[in-house]
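Our consortium's second objective concerns turning raw sequence data into structural hypotheses that experimental partners can test. To show how far this objective has progressed, the report includes one record in full. It was chosen at random from the queue rather than selected for favorable results. The single chain below, 76 residues long, was entered without modification.
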Amino acid sequence: MVRYFLKQTKIDFLDKKVITYGIAVKSDNKIIREIDDICLDKEKLSNLISLCNSEELCEIHLDEVIESFLQNDESF
């Protein structure tokens, strides 16, 4: 079973340090995939990650879920 976790990255943007959030995917306690810089809103992405874990989302559908999240983020 895969589990999804919040991933934090600091980037330089216009001479400022910005924190962005992404998703790390683990299977058998090993990171099998990481997606950086999905959004700046920690709470919204945390809600998405909780939903992915509670629904036991198969990792092959993660890209579609992220695309939907980015297009319709007010629903998360």
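The partners drew two points from this record. The two ends are 23 Å apart (CA to CA). Residues 2-75 form one domain. Both points have been shared with the crystallography group to help prioritize constructs.
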